[in-house]
Specification:
The chain is mostly beta strands. It has two helices and eleven strands, in the order ββββαβββββββα.
């Protein structure tokens, strides 16, 4: 027959020395129902059931973690092998992680041994987790258009390599992880024209140290539109030939008070020497 035990105050069942002892209270029945709140103040709760059903839609882990501390929280799966599996919040990294682990769940941290794979459905919204298939398909349709100085567009498709090739006097070199070095050779060849970038600016050729600027071939002077202004340096220029018979003039503010002079040809010099006796 059914039996009921009612008390008007708290009711305690204690075996031996209680929580500090080694005795147990065993309920041996098909069903044990607690119709009020159940509070377990022990250090370990073990549920040996084949099926666990929980009505609560939100399960709170690390309930007494009232201040920020390095406590990992999550679900650990006992795999019965060297490494268990866990899906947990890593407090040190501030991220959720799926891993295999050497931890057994008795501490406050998870020791990762390797990252574990997570499978998900194909994404439909912008905030959905992307699958490898989705990323591969998206990357496969990627193209990059590149144009040079001549505006010719080059399409770089998936799996292709964009190569930087140096022209005359230019060399290129790539290095991991993300560097391309472009070098201009010290010895310039196949250069047909050098001009200054700014109107009326000087173009300076200078050697290093005591070296000279050497011209190995013909040096051609174009006709000067006007006589340049004199300064404390010697300027050489070409005009219509005068009494010197060369058309090659020079001017320097420290020579003849800055009056231009013409270089004399050998023929003119010989004639002048004969004329002067």
């Amino acid at each position: 027959m059914a039996k009921h035990l009612r008390t008007s105050s708290d009711y305690t069942i204690k075996t031996g020395t209680g929580a500090s002892g080694s005795n147990s209270v065993i309920f041996d029945s098909k069903t044990t129902r607690v119709k009020g709140d159940l509070v377990v103040d022990g250090t370990n709760t073990v549920v040996d059931t084949a099926s666990l059903t929980i009505e609560d839609p939100i399960i709170i882990l690390s309930r007494n973690n009232s201040t920020p501390s390095d406590v990992d929280s999550g679900i650990l799966v006992n795999r019965g092998a060297a490494n268990n599996a866990a899906f947990y919040w890593n407090e040190g990294d501030d991220t959720f992680k799926a891993v295999t682990t050497s931890s057994d769940g008795t501490g406050t941290s998870i020791a990762d041994t390797a990252l574990a794979k997570i499978q998900a459905g194909e994404p439909a919204a912008a905030s959905d987790v992307a699958t490898k298939n989705y990323v591969d398909a998206s990357a496969g349709s990627f193209t990059l258009n590149v144009a040079g100085d001549d505006s010719t567009a080059i399409t770089v498709g998936s799996g292709q390599i964009l190569q930087f090739v140096g022209g005359a006097n230019i060399s290129t070199a790539g290095s991991e992880p993300d560097t391309i070095t472009i070098d201009l050779g010290q010895n310039l060849t196949n250069i047909e024209s050098i001009s200054s970038a700014t109107s009326n600016a000087n173009l300076t050729l200078a050697s290093n140290g005591t070296g000279d600027v050497v011209i190995n071939d013909t040096l051609t002077f174009s006709a000067a539109a006007t006589t340049p202004s004199a300064s404390a340096v010697t300027k050489i220029y070409n005009k219509t030939a005068g009494g010197g018979g060369t058309g090659l003039y020079f001017i320097n503010s420290n020579i003849s008070s800055g009056t231009e002079g013409e270089l004399i040809s050998k023929k003119k010099a010989t004639a002048l020497a004969i004329a002067l006796g």
